[in-house]
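Justification of computing resources. Each target in the renewal requires a structure prediction run like the one illustrated here; the chain below, 354 residues long, is used simply to show the kind of job we budget for.
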Amino acid sequence: MHAHNPRLLALVSLLLLLPATAPATPLAEALQSCAGITDADARLACYDRLAEQPGADGDIPATTPRARTLALPGGAEARGSDPARWSGSRIDAVWGFAPDSSRYVIASHRPSYLLPARYSDRPNEQPFSPLAELADADRVELDSVEARFQFSFKTRLWTTDDRRWGLWGAYTQQSQWQVYNDREGVSRPFRETNYMPELILSYRPDLSLGGFHWRLLNMGYTHQSNGRAEPLSRSWDRLFAEVGVERGDLVLNARVWHRIQESDTRDDNPDITDYLGYGDLTAFWQQGGHSYTLMLRGRPATGKGAVQATWMSPPILGPLRAYTQVFSGYGESMIDYNWRQNTLGFGLALSDLY
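Resulting structure tokens:
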């Protein structure tokens, strides 16, 4: 049996003293949420978190900081350098698995960033589809340096009372902008913009495997396209499953996906899985406020794939962090899915993966 915890006894006593006719307060709702947790350790941790939160003049706060920070767009507070306030779990923080988290939230999803300078050693001046080759006259002379930016967010649409299940809607948009290209007839165009809405069902398994804690199981649907007409149209739809495990400051994510086939007359890129494969692996690690990610994907049967590595500094101006991104392989964007290149970009990021 667990030893009696003074903070737990104080909180339970406070709950019992609340008048039965008094309207529900955020504190009372949070205490009731903790009381509904069936696992003893998780329930005790929930009470401990409430007891440790500082309030005005030492009193217990009327609202829970967790609900406020998780609901902030961009997730800067929810993804701060001190994950201990989120029961030590980065996955719990990002996916709102804490039992006292807000039921409906808006948070960052994938990293949101701006790279004013992104260099490519092999710009794709003549994108082509397997269905329609472009003539030499259609070649566009591109700068090897362009700007790239991405914003990404998600919102929880539904969740259970213990927050172990959740349904999320997510949206990510990424653009490549030839902002430095002032050649005659070019006029600094947006070279490519990709749109990716997602619907995700999340679950917290809470199992331990070889020293890692399995805290994420996602299943969902993804649509990705560039919204262009033939012969530059690119799109695909996927069903996916994702698992996430963590150990200290290390988080590992693995995804597998199945492409939903289109009819031959509608498929702009029938060979896209030859280049992007059927899944990816991502490792995230944070140390001293610096965070690093490594992503791998590919299809061994074709020998094609990609690797991407990123670095983010601690915050340097409010929530903004210095950001570096390195990519090598196929599929940096939809228009480049079958084009191999090496790129290097520098800029600022507003939110991280975890």
